[in-house]
Amino acid sequence: MKQFYSKLWTAVLLLMIVFQFSAFAQNAVTISGNVKDKLTNEPLPGVSINVKGKVTGTTTDIKGNFSLKTNTTSAFTITVAYIGYKPQEIVISGSQIGLSIAMEAEAILGQEVVVAASRVEEKILESPVSIEKMGAAAVQATAGPSFYDALANMKGVEMSAQSLTFKSINTRGFNANGNERFNQFIDGMDNQAPGLNFSVGNIVGVSELDVQSVELLPGASSALYGSGGTNGTLLMTSKSPFTSQGLSYSAKLGMNHTDGYENDRSPLYEMNVRYAKAFNNKLAFKINASLLQATDWKAQDNRNIDRLTETMKSGDRNSDPNYDGVNVYGDEINANLKDVAKGMIAANVLPATISTPGGPVPTINFFPNQSVSRTGYQESDLVDFDTKSYKFSGALHYRLNSSVEAIAQANWGTGTSVYTGSDRYSLRNFSLGQYKLELKGSNFYLRGYTTQERSGEAYNATALASIINESWSPSAPDPERPSVAPWFPTYTGAFFQAKLAGKSDEDAFNIARATADKNRPAPGSETFNTLKDQITARTIGPAFGAKFNDKTNLYQTEGMYNFTEQVKFAELLTGASYKVYDLNSDGTIFDDAAQSIDIKEYGAFAQMGKKVLNDKLKLTAGIRYDKNENFKGSFTPRVSAVYTVANDHNFRVSYQTGFRNPTTQNQFIDLLIRANTRLIGGLPVILDKYNLRTNKGYTQASLIEFQKTGDPAVLQKYTFTEFSPESVKAYEIGYKGLINRKLLVDFYYYYNSYKNFISTLNLVQSSDGTPAGIATGKTFSTVVNNPAKVNSQGWALGLDYMISKYSIGGNVSFNELKGGQDALETSYNTPKVRYNLNFGSKEVFKNTGFNISYRWQDAFNWSSSFATGDVPAFGSVDAMVSYKVPSMKTMFKMGGSNIMNKYYRTSFGNPQMGGVYYVSILFDQFLK
Fold this sequence. Notes:
This protein is mainly beta. It has a domain at 2-103: Carboxypeptidase-like, regulatory domain (Immunoglobulin-like). 13% of the residues lie in helices and 45% in strands. The strands form 12 sheets. The chain has a 22-stranded antiparallel β-barrel. Strands 10-15-16-13-14 form a 5-stranded mixed beta sheet. Helix 5 crosses helix 8 and helix 8 (487-500) runs antiparallel to helix 9 (505-516). The longest helix is centred in the first third of the chain and has 23 residues, at 2-24. It is elongated, with a radius of gyration of 30 Å. One of its GO terms (cellular component) is cell outer membrane. Keywords: Cell outer membrane, Membrane, Receptor, Signal, TonB box, Transmembrane, Transmembrane beta strand, Transport. Residues 402-889 form the TonB-dependent receptor-like beta-barrel domain. It is a multi-pass membrane protein.
C-alpha cells in the first residue's frame, strides 16, 4: 500500500513539473481595481474576483482593492461575486489597471451556484434534483451553537443526536446513529471513520471560520459519488487561502444544564482561529485551530425494557427482579431462578427436598419460573461526559499556472464524546486524521488521500458495567476464583432461605438481591474507580476489558475530467476511484486478532449533459460501475431532465440509482456486546466461524411467538443466502421557481424501491440444535439482505419569501415506509411529518440582525441494535440577535438553541437535550 501511494505522489509531482514548465512559456496579464456598492459608494471587502474557467482568482481587501495576474493572453472573462449582490462578468482583453466595478444589491433567492447535483456549476434553480445550500453568510447567521446543528432546519433533513458534539445527518428515511446510507465529504474526502463506520463531520470537521459552503443532496447519488449515497450526500467545502485571506477568530461562551435537571449548570467554551496568506497570487497557505469544552447531556432513561420482544414493560429495580433499564448497563445479564436452583440441587449445594409438616416437598417448588437480572450501573457512573473537541487543519496551495493548482492538506482532530451503536460508547480521546494531495484544474482533478482512525481510550460502557460486576462477583462459579461467591447462586440461596422463613416472593426477591449485592462496589468509591480504570485500560476480548484498540485506515485515489471543451456539443464528465480499507482493531471490533484484513473497492463513472429546444430542456444521463472484492459489481445509472417553462421557473424529473456495499462492520465485525450475545458480520467466513450455516439459529420473531404460546412448532430456523450490496431505484419529480423575484418555491415528490435491503437479523443458536438448548444457547446479531419489498415515498415543500429587509421561510416534509415490515428489521426511524419555520433579517436596525427558527417533528418508532422504542413528538426554538461594529470588523452575537428549554430526544436510547445559551464575538476583516 505504501509503495502504491508513493508512486501516486511521484506521478502527481511529475504532472506538477509539466504544468509548471508550460506556464513559463506564457506572458502574465495583470488586472487591478476597486469594487464598491453602487448605491452607497462604499468599498466592498471580500468580493471574489475569478478568471472564468480557470483556478486564478483573488478577493478585495478591506478597502475594496484587488489585483491578480493570469497567464491567459487572449480575451477572457472575469467573474465578480459577492453574497447579496448581483454577480457580474467582465470581458478582459489585456492588462488593465484601475478597473472600477460597482455592484448592485439584490435578493439572491435561487441564484446560488451549486456543484453537488451534477458535479458541474449550475444555479440552484436549474438543478436536476432537489438540493439545499448553506453559504458562509448563512453560517454567520445561524441561531444555534454551530452551523452543523442548523442543518436540521433544511428541508427533509433528519438528525440523530447522541451527544452534544455527536450528531448524524440523514434524509429520506432509514435514519441511524451512524448514518451508513448517507455520504459526507469534506473538500472531497470521505469523512466516515473507516472502522467505526460513522461520519464525524462535527467532531473532526470544518471550522465555522473556514466554511465556504455546505451543499446537501437528498436521495440517491451513487452514480456520482459511489457507494453509500443511497439516502443522500453532504459536501462541505472550506475556503481557499487565495480568495479568503487574513486573520479571523471567534470566541463563544455558553451555558447548558441551566435548570440543573440532569446536571449542575455548566459552561460551554468554544474558540476558533483562522489565518490565510497568499504570495503573488501564486503560493498560499492557511491554518485553522478550534477547541470546544462542555459538559455533555446524559442518557438517563431508566424505563424497563424487554430486549427480546423490543417492548417496554412495567416495573423498576424494586418491583421487577428481571429489570433492564434502557440506560442502565450491566443489568442485561440475567438467569432463570429455577434453572439456577436446578443446577445447585444437582451439585448438592441445595437439598433435593425439604421436610414440612405435610411431608417432604421438592426444593425446586420454592422457586418461581422467573428470570433475574444483575444489578446494573447508571450511564452517568460509567461514561466520560467532559466533552472536548480539538481540531487543527492546514493547507498549502500552489498555482502552477492559471489553470492548474496543487494542494497539500491535512485535517486532524481529537476529542471526547459519546456514541450510540449496539451499546453506548465513550469516545474518549478518539482521533481522526485526513491527509490529501490534490492536483486540480478548471476541468479536472486528481486526488489521493488517507483517513487514519485512532480509537484512543474509547470504551464500551455496557461492557464496562458487566465486567465490573463479574470482577467482584462472577455470575457463575469461577474455577479460577473458588473463594469468590458467585452472584446468581448467592442470590438463589438467599431467596431460598427467605422462602423457608415464610417470606413472600416479593420480599424474598429483595432480600436475595441485598444479600448478593452486599459487597458490590458503589459508584464513585475507591474500589469502583480502581476497577473502572483497570477495565477501561484493557482491550475487549481475551484481556477481559472494555477498551477498543482500533487503528483502521482508508486509502483512496480518485480523479475526474471534464471533456466539455473537447467534445463541444455536450457536457461530458468521466471519473474513477480506487480505495482500500485497512482494518486494524486487534480483534476488539473485527475478526482480525489473528489475521490481516484489507478490503479493496474500485469504480468509474461517465456523465453527459445536453441542452436542447433552444436551451429550455437540459437532459443529463450518467452511469457508474463499482466493485468490492467481497461482492459482485454494481451498475448505477442516472437520468434527469430539467425544463424551463419560463425564466426562473423549472420543472425537473429524475431517475437515479444508488447502492451501498455492506460497511466494514457489516462484513467483518466480531464483537461480544453482552453476555452470550455477539455482533457479527454477514460474510460466510464469519457465519462459518460460529457454525450458523450448519447449526442454524432460531429467529427472534419465532422466539417471541414461542414465548407467548409455548408451542415449539412456531420456532423457525434461519437459512442464510448470498449476501449482496444494497441498491435503490429512486424516482423524483419537482418544481423550483422564483415568483416576482421575491418568493422561492421548491417542491418534490420521491419514490424509492430498495433491493437486497440490508437488515438486522437476531438469532438464538441452540446449544444442542433443539428447542431444549435455547436456554443455554448463544445470541447473534448479524446483517442479511431482506427478501421482502422495501419501498418508501415522500414529498417536501419549501417556501422562502423576501419582504423588504426581512426573510420569511419554512418547509414541510412527509416520509413513509411502504413495505419491508416483516421479521427482518428495516429501522426506518423517521417521523412521517416534520416542518421548519424561520424569520430573520441581516439588518433590521443599523448593524443589528436577528434570526428565529422553529423545528417540529412527529412522534415515531425508533429501532436499532441498541434498543427499540417510541420517540415523542417535539418542537424546538432557536434564536439569535447580532450586532456588527464595521469599524472593528467585529460581530457580537447572543442566542441559543432550544431556548424554551423543553427537553427532547431525537432517537431512542439517546440523551434528552435542553437549552444551550451563548454569547459570542467574531472578528473577520471580510465580515459580511
